[in-house]
Nuclear pore membrane glycoprotein
Amino acid sequence: MVRGDQQVEIFDPIAVQPEILIFAHTPNEVLYEYVLQVTGRSGSYFYQTKDISIAKVDSHGLLKVNSNRLGESKILVNDQRNFDIKSESKVMVVEPVGIFLDPCPVEALVKSRLEINVKMNGLMQDGSMVSINDCSKISFNVRIQDETVFKHIEVVAADRMGENCAKIILDAKKVGKSLIQVFYGELKSQEMKIFSFPQLTSLKKNLVLTKSSSYLFSLSDGPFLNSDIHSYVSEFRVNRHHIINVEHLEHNPLASKYTYKITCLDTNDFENEIEFTIWNRVTSQNKCPMKFNYKLGVSCLRPKILELSQLFVKNDGSDQEVYSNMKWNRPIKLNSKFAVANLNRDLNIQLLVKDS
């Protein structure tokens, strides 16, 4: 009996991604570039193209595709250790026949950039329609209704080839809304609304309350341009629901405010945080609205000092409301200032509670 050992290497088959690449034809002599993703076998590959007038490929899999030549070419990939092991990818350059602006995203923060995703369809030689993977070399004519709100910066390649073929970069210069439309020759996209919003803000960053006391907390700005109360979503997250209760009261579109009633249910000297999130509802014209966040610190503390002082009424009759029916479960220090009541006028007292 004869025995022996022999080393055997087993590799996965070669796989080239993507299998098909479709580029938009342009009259200008510019090059599309794309790196093929190849896996399997030894990891060392040899690349070649069938038609160098359409595309060229280097030893690292970098494709350079001529944008001004209609047609297609196969890209062959062989394993360097065994040329019988191979795979291929196809490159096509087609004539664009349609433009569409993807309504995701259509919102941006003021002083930031908005990236408009562009989709294009192309016509193959057999008359069938295909989605173009890369149209970033096309000289689009970008028209913006109000250029004081948005300014066109540039056209770049899409982040994920296959979903979109290019991105139009806009600068959100000021708060407002506008319309965008893209043209290429006789082709034109739909008109699409775009928005530049300010950040969600409030005059309060922290609240200090006692048991059973409440505060009407308001958020302003954010996605304020949609005045319909049913056009936005408001959520809030509280770490300890048994300590703090939050009620969403109303949205005032004219004042651009979102109002909540915050109540402390316990006074065991707890500190908590409420995170508010507001965004517009998803629609066919706004498929991925921005989410605006605001964090509010809330402390529920035991009162230690109670101060009474006179609150004078202004000439317009306005004053400051205070909470009544407040009951303390422990002795507190009472400080009062001299209060003077005028004839035929109410005596207004301001109540100030301190935790130290």
About this structure: The chain has four domains: 15-95, 101-196, 200-300, 305-356. The radius of gyration is 33 Å.
